[in-house]
Write a structure and sequence with these properties.
Shape: globular
Strand content: 15-25%
Strand order of the largest sheet: 3-4-5-2-1-6
CATH class of the largest domain: Alpha Beta
């Protein structure tokens, strides 16, 4: 049985500096803060994610929209585009979609791969339709997540990345 990816994902998303885990303050750890404004960390993150313009390159946004068109043409359901450019360094956009069955999921992977090659990108696929979650690193800062209905509800990426700006939602 393959190990679950959920614990590793949680570790990556909720990482804290070592001095916080040990209970030491930043002063005790020898760190300095170069601001005299006392703002909670979550307030800063939410402001950055909601008010600031995207940092993603325009061609990445266009590419993500092209991939959405491909998924919609192949009858993917509940397609969502999240802008992560202000929240993550590893990707600018998540495209999240649901496939109704295994055969459709495989067709969606093939279609995304063809679209990536048309944009001179090399798509890398992880997971399988049988597992319920297929991750496609489509290149140019765009990651496509294809889920079965059950897996999408279970992993709830939209909830996990709730501070990301929702750019597109197609039911």
């Amino acid at each position: 049985m393959a190990p679950s990816r959920r614990p590793a994902l949680q570790c990556a998303l909720y990482w804290k500096p070592a001095h916080r885990e040990s209970g030491r303050t930043h002063e005790e750890a020898g760190l300095t803060i170069e601001s005299d404004v006392d703002v909670e960390e979550t307030e800063v993150e939410e402001t950055i994610a909601s008010d600031a313009p995207s940092l993603a390159p325009a061609d990445a946004a266009e590419y993500a929209h092209d991939l959405i068109d491909v998924l919609v043409d192949r009858q993917a359901s509940d397609v969502v585009l999240l802008d992560l450019s202000r929240l993550a360094a590893f990707a600018d956009f998540f495209v999240i979609a649901t496939a109704d069955n295994i055969r459709q999921a495989r067709a969606l992977v093939d279609s995304v791969d063809v679209a990536a090659r048309e944009h001179n990108e090399n798509a890398t696929v992880e997971g399988s339709a049988d597992e319920g979650w297929i991750l496609i690193d489509a290149g140019n800062g765009v990651i496509v997540h294809l889920f079965s209905v059950e897996s999408r509800l279970y992993y709830n990426l939209e909830g996990l990345w709730r501070r990301a700006q929702e750019v597109v939602r197609i039911q």
